[in-house]
């Protein structure tokens, strides 16, 4: 059975200190799908776009074994659009505009075959929609969930319901502090674990990622990157690499979850090396394997 | 031959959200010496205090195999005093006062036997004084150096002279960015390496530490700490653990430098568990060894 991904699909205008792109492929579903496609397939997506959504993007996704049956194309409507500009140090971005367009009416309807999915990634969308997806699933076994400050601040009640039904929550350090109201990340993790998720992953950007299980912690390093061209989608690429790897081998031991976190970090590192989704479009298994070895050399000692 | 340490010795008033202490033992030399003492000895220190410096502190240091021949005690003068208050999240502290007292006239004079030292830690003092120490040494083989924003901003010319003569520079991430004028830490590290030091260690607090060699990088995790009682001296404890470990086994392979970084991180983690130097005063070899194993479990994957 495939890996189901529900989230946003959009077109982005991105400006960084190095370059800018317009009308580039964006959205959480897109980054997650591409990253996961290097490990498993098919990837089933549920999303919505307008009839302005370029056919070439659909072709590219299909070439990555992404099944578009759940992609609703609304005639006469426009695709979700987002524009942002990154500051010099790339850690801060200003949103220039957010045109929800068709995404405003997004109400995910799973195709019948997707209702049987066991492995699901809930991309960063309204918790109410995440709940609707969970309600349509007949037998979810492994649910990975993303969220953000906007929903923590504005839809906490629904978010708490979601957290009770997910296996893994993936958020960044500032989101973890906000969600738990606790500055110490280790204490924050323990508080969040009590909200429901079996595992918690806290992404820390240039500082790597932490994986928390019931009684144990894993600290993954960040790949040492001199040239980050576009941070957009890094977190989604992480979720895609992490879950794609687990979907392939179905091994939920903590040792294998550690490896999955490293594969997530690897896909995030490839993602930020190029603009938009370009860094995830043409990777070879050897490149991914070699970067795994680099990650191991980076952090191993005895 | 012993390990030579030159830096500050003082008395601190420290307030954190959890508690406060007054008149507690402080200063870079103190933390470095205690941390190093668990790996090697004797520790020879060069420093200055007033006649108000409590005898009990000298006794405690001597019990840790610290040789006080180079400690100048100025009659009728007062010891360096520092007061600070940490904010709720412990990442920010306000300096309440700095009374240099005898430290204002500190002009390190090495005892004859210390002039023959091969292993030296230059604690965070004026680069001019660090240069004076280097000039007195007959045959320095391995020099580890600390500095801070204050000297980067105010004594850059002297600092650059120091950097050409040290083997390892240990600074934190904000200092690395300031020294290199470069926000990307990896680029910052390459710039700083060109200033002279053979190895660079960038401490990142709750995010661990990075060790940079000529062509290679090591990323050490941070120990997951829920209860940090007093961050004072953590960086000095790191330097002491790192250099003490190397002084003991004299193995400068990159693999052993990695282990030394982990031992530095271990000593920093013990340091912050109690107020002042208390976390470094009564450790057992078994506690240190067990924490090494915990660090390995925290970051290993295959």
Structure explained in plain terms:
Two copies of one chain form a homodimer. With 302 residues, chain A is α/β, with parallel strands linked by helices. The first copy, chain A, has one domain (3-299): Ribokinase (UDP-N-acetylmuramoyl-L-alanine:D-glutamate ligase, 3-Layer(aba) Sandwich), CATH 3.40.1190.20. Chain A is 37% helix and 25% strand. Chain A has eleven helices and 13 strands. In chain A, the strands form two sheets. In chain A, strands 5-4-1-8-9-10-11-12-13 form a nine-stranded mixed sheet, with helices on both faces. A four-stranded mixed sheet of chain A has the order 3-2-6-7. In chain A, helix 7 (173-180) packs across helix 8. The longest helix of chain A is centred in the last third of the chain and has 18 residues, at 254-271. The model of chain A has no long low-confidence stretch (mean pLDDT 95). At the A-B interface, helix 8, strand 13, helix 10 and helix 11 of A face helix 8, strand 13, helix 10 and helix 11 of B.
- What gyration radius of chain A follows from the Cα positions, in whole Å? 18 Å
What would you say the CATH architecture of chain A is? 3-Layer(aba) Sandwich
Averaged pLDDT of chain A: 95
How many helix segments of chain A? 11
SS-based structural class of chain A?
alpha/beta
């Amino acid at each position: 059975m495939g890996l189901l991904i529900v989230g946003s699909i959009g077109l982005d205008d991105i400006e960084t200190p190095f370059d800018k792109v317009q009308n580039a492929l964006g959205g959480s579903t897109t980054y997650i799908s591409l990253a996961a496609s290097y490990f498993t397939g098919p990837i089933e997506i549920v999303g919505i776009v307008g009839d302005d959504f370029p056919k070439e993007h659909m072709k590219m996704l299909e070439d990555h074994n992404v099944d578009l049956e759940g992609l609703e194309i609304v005639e006469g409507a426009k695709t979700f659009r987002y524009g942002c500009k990154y500051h010099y140090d790339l850690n801060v971005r200003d949103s220039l505009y957010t045109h929800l367009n068709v995404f405003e009416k997004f109400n995910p309807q799973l195709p019948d075959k997707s209702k049987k999915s066991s492995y699901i990634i809930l991309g960063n969308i309204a918790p109410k929609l995440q709940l609707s997806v969970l309600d349509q699933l007949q037998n979810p076994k492994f649910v990975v969930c993303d969220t953000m400050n906007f929903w923590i601040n504005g839809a906490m009640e629904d978010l708490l319901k979601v957290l009770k039904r997910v296996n893994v929550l993936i958020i960044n350090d500032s989101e973890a502090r906000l969600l738990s109201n606790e500055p110490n990340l280790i204490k924050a993790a323990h508080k969040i674990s009590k909200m429901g998720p079996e595992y918690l992953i806290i992404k820390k950007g240039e500082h790597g990622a932490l994986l928390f299980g019931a009684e144990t912690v894993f600290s993954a390093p960040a790949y040492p990157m001199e040239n980050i061209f576009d941070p957009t989608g890094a977190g989604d690429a992480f979720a895609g690499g992490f879950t794609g790897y687990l979907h392939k081998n179905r091994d939920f031991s903590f040792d294998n979850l550690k490896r999955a976190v490293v594969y997530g970090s690897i896909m995030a590192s490839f993602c930020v090396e190029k603009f938009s989704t370009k860094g995830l479009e043409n990777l070879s298994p050897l490149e991914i394997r070699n970067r795994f070895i680099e990650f191991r050399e980076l952090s191993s000692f005895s």
